[in-house]
What does this fold into?
Amino acid sequence: MLKYIVRRLLLLIPILLGLSLFLVVFLHLLPGDPCSANLGEHSTPENLARCRTGLGLDRPIYQQYFDYMAGLLHGDLGVSATNKVSVTTEFAARFPATFELTVSAMFLAIGVGIPLGVAAAKRQYSLFDNFATVASLIGISIPIFFLGLLLQYLFGVWLHWLPTAGRYDLATYSYDGAGTNFLLWESLVINHNLAEFADVLRHLILPAVALGTIPLAVVARITRSAVLEVLSEDYVRTARAKGLTSKRIDDRHVLRNAMLPISTVIGLQTGLLLGGAVLTEQIFSWGGVGNWLFQAAVDKDFVVIQSGALILATIFVLVNLVVDIGYAYLNPRIRYS
Amino acid sequence: MDPRIEEVDRSGAGGPSPDYEVALVSLNQWQLAWRRFKKHRLALIGACIFLGMVALAVFGPFFLPYDPTFVPPPDSLFCPGSTTQLAYSGCPPLTPGHLLGTTGSLRLDLLTLVVNGARVSLIIGLGASIFSAIIGTIVGGVAGYFGGLLDNVLMRIVDIMLSIPILFVIIICAEVFGNGDWKVILIVFAIFGWQGIARLVRSLFLTLRTEVFVDAARAVGVSDIRIIFRHILPNAISPIIVSTTLSVAGVIIGEAFVSFIGYGVNPSLTPTWGNELTAAQDFIAQGNWWWPLFPGLAIVLTVLGINFMGDGLRDALDPRSRE
It folds into this structure.
């Protein structure tokens, strides 16, 4: 198993190398750089030249690449050209926001998607199954920003039930920026303040629903088809024949075997969401990773884009690795070597 | 009775005659697929929705009196027939002259925007999907057929391209090529959309290349290119069609996404469903629900239609495949 994990991690190296090489070349081939994007009206030739020398953009491209890679090997992800904050610091400050959002969204997707898919599969072609199938297709078809706008209008503007922007209400919660930035954790465990916790939770609901809808639909669909396939297996018939309760058949025989494809999808979706839900974060003014990288692309902040993309690729690979390792526990027949 | 058996009346006179003959009408795979597709009710509904949208996009603009980019002169402070609704924050649906209402700020006719938006959204969706299907089929076919080093190199390129966040590329291309030309968006989506199909085609080719008919073709001296395109590809075409259909939906959402955040198609040149939603955001708080609702519904309906159709096509063309 350890050997397998190491091999999978080693596979990251060529991907990261290729990705960084591509990004560096791609970004430098294009006209415009952080200096021209930042200086705006102050962009006299002298100012531009000074800015470029300051950022090291006047060096030959291969030297920039090697310096950047040398920094990476020392654990230095670089410094933003826009606000001079190091990528590591900024990422550490923003990742908790994205993490809380992703976990809530996936919680919703798994908690509703799997029971929905199982229920649909057990009553195949019934009215409920047809309804679930159409509903999940609709869920896949709604663009996330449209759903976000609808939710904002419905629950924010019209019903006034839920807040539509930010992570907490300044009146209830004065978060000072210290601590972990995992606000659910901070408010409940560190501050022991239920009012703050409730406030953070209320702010989380709409973005989580917007972000979780597509994964929910995907999980429900894959669960339905996976369960349908397992239900027709001989061992399920045998389990029924020997008189097991249907709950036990579901839990121990059906779901456990169906979990394999389901967990693949869950892993893929989680990886995608952790990469920053740009739109959801934009619409709900959520200060997470997606928002940050979006702004970096707008500002042509080369270092942030490069390092950000590398971090995202790494997270994506790691999440999928965790899922693959999880397989071995779900399905004892799988042995990685 | 087997539906393929038709009773053929050979008596010439019609009416009952002892002179019956039973003829077998053979159906090719497309006719069989069409028969399966027809039975799929959701797929038929989806096809109708999609074709309806295409018809709307092609013919709709000819029947509408307004120009999608023409800003009407401010003739009145209030909406026609109202004394309270400010024209500046948009007139609600069913306002005289504006079936779906008007947008806030520029007071454009929403129906005109939605119908004209259909054109570019559908062209980008269809165009980029077809382009990427062609690129993906060629790359995947070559990789899967020849295997070895070539396969390895091509698939690593695919891996790397898949790990590039397309958003960066779009934003940067938007800034470089400026002015939000829809052709640029189409090309970017084609260039960054073929990797999935390439993987699919490669995996199909890996199995198909070991089939006996490939050996037979090679034995009689058929060239590699001809084997790839004339012998193997027709056997792999069904999953490619299904995947391309579903990718149309993905591209339409993707285009709407980048146009929505302001890095796609320029709204003052060409309206698309995505860029119609951008400005709508700011008017939601004023209770203007119709502005975001109708372009958004158009996206949902079209994508839903394509997804229904794709599901049906999968069942019809590729009955063995599962999710």
